[in-house]
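User: Before I run my own analysis I want an independent prediction to cross-check against. Here's the chain; please return only the structure tokens and, at the end, one sentence I can use as a sanity check.
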Amino acid sequence: MPSIKKKKSQLPQKKKDAPARPRNLRIFYFILFALPLVFLLLLEGVLRLLTDDPITPLVVRREERGKPFYQLNARVGERFFLGGVAAVPEVYPQRFAYTKPNNGLRVFCLGASTMASFPYELHARVSSLLQDRLQLMYPDRTVEVINAGMAAINSYAVVEFARELAQYEPDLFVMYLGHNEFYGALGVGSTQSLGQNRGLVRLYLRLQKFRTFMLLRRLIVAVRQGLQSNTNVPAGQQTLMEGMAAEKTIRFESEMYRRGLAQFRDNLAEILAIAQQQRVPIIVGTLVSNLRDMAPFASEDAPDLPAEQKRQWQKLFEQGWQLQRQQNYAEAKRLFQEVAAIDSASALLYFRLGQTHAALGEIDAARKSYETARDLDLLRFRAPGEFNKIIREICSTFSAPVVEMEEAFARQSPHGLIGHELISEHLHPNFDGYFLMAKTFAQAIRQHQELVPGLHAVEGEFDDQFLRDYSAVTLFDLQIGNRKIERLTKRWPFRREQFTFPPDSLQAPAVVRQLVEEYQANRIAWNAAHFQLAEEYQRQGKGEEALREYRAVMKVVPENDAAYTRMADLLLQQNRFAAADSLLQIAMKWNEQSPFVRAKLGLVNFMQHRFAAAAEHFQTALNLNNMRQAMSANDLAAANYYLALCRVQLGQLEFAQTHLAEVLRSQPQHDEAKRLLLMLQKGIEVKLEF
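Assistant: Structure tokens:
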């Protein structure tokens, strides 16, 4: 049978759409990768509908009595801390005007804990001291100095702060920054670090504008805090210094050291670029630390030597230290120099050598040794000297003035060696130091006032003692700082033998120490403590000290009625009527609706025999009290009684009887009111004696 061959055209053919499989695969992969993105976009949309702005802003808008104002946000630090610290540091929630005055001079202070003025608070801070000086230098301007300094941050945070504050019409940035570069939030050696890649850190800060990212971040922080709670460190017991330092050994010229310098250089350049782009003048201070009275935190004894040479090194060093204690400084110096020739990596060696040079009167050599000791310190809480070189270099690039703060402190220190006369511990100034810092910044602003259009300072400098009195900083305020330093230096990394306090730094009367303890334990308000201390001074006959306590409250809480009225009472006791009147006029501008201020103004005018004006103030006080019910029965009785006396002097006898009846209605045993009312009812002529 003949075979039958199928034609090729009759063979089964593959479907023509088979080649489409690769295209379907691409669609599959696109959907696979797009679904998470769509999910994230949907989640971001839902979170935007349900939650506030993800970034905790530096500046927030607030209202009080229907009037808007701006305020620094105490919680802004949450953006930079990753958990694992006892408490996130806060910026002081300072207010400033919502609408900048036409004659306004608005200055923002940028920096970390030194600019925040640790350990002092409120009007003892460098920004308040600077505002005092600027307001006196430029009396035609309404001066605002707003302090955005915050503990435990570094240049990463300040970059963000500068960018945000540029939106609020600044006339000037004043910056002091650099000591926290290694251990501040996001620093290369910090527990709050994201690593040593600046690009990664900047990406992290940019991603914070997304709510999805911030949700993930909060989850990570919560987990991290949970892990932290399982450690041996009791919650809330760490100081910031203990909680922030991860890398406790950062050698001079090591890779991490160099990365810290590069981080500071790049961020400083970005801050100045922001200021330049936004046309905000900026001045930058060089960094100051305690050279003479602060031994290094951490030092290595000849780490790279063989064992035998290291033993020789240690033996010679101990011999030199023994000779120094015996005040045989020349021989001690010789041995220390011999030790340095063997190995020169020890920070403590150079600190001891600096002490011997200083004791021998070799000041330049002492300064160089102290600076080397600071730079070799393995625990980098003090910025090395190279940071000041970077500040000068970057500022020169951007034509920004440098304020030589280190030189200013050296000029005011014995033999030019900065120590405890101006520095509390390792780097934070004491009050004298902050006073000098404010003075130095103010002088720089005067010198470069052409940076701010229309700025013209009055001639001459103000006396330092006048400015100290003007600051209204009292012993209570200083003792608040002293107690913080005392507690800090009892903890790691301090050792008691490591540094010296000035003899009188912790001295204060028992009543002041007690009130500070109560204030820091939140058992008494700050202004109440000042009032209580003023009353104690009055009992002791120390009128001027009492007035200073009242001035402190008026400076910090100018709307506080009690400060003005209590101070006016004291001035009246001293027969200083004009001063009391001026004071109460200021108080009335702050609070026109206060019956207390009006009543005190009535009393001041009464004591000066200005009866018509006194009657008007007393009547206004009573009218205001009818609306607010703020005055006590005794206050009301006193106001009505003095108003009755005014009416008598003005010949308004019927009104006088009405007010006397009001006195007796609340205080039937008021003998003077009863006697005067009886005389008026009988038509007896009343002659008041003063």
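Sanity check: The beta strands are 59-64, 67-72, 95-97, 104-111, 142-147, 172-176, 282-285, 402-403.
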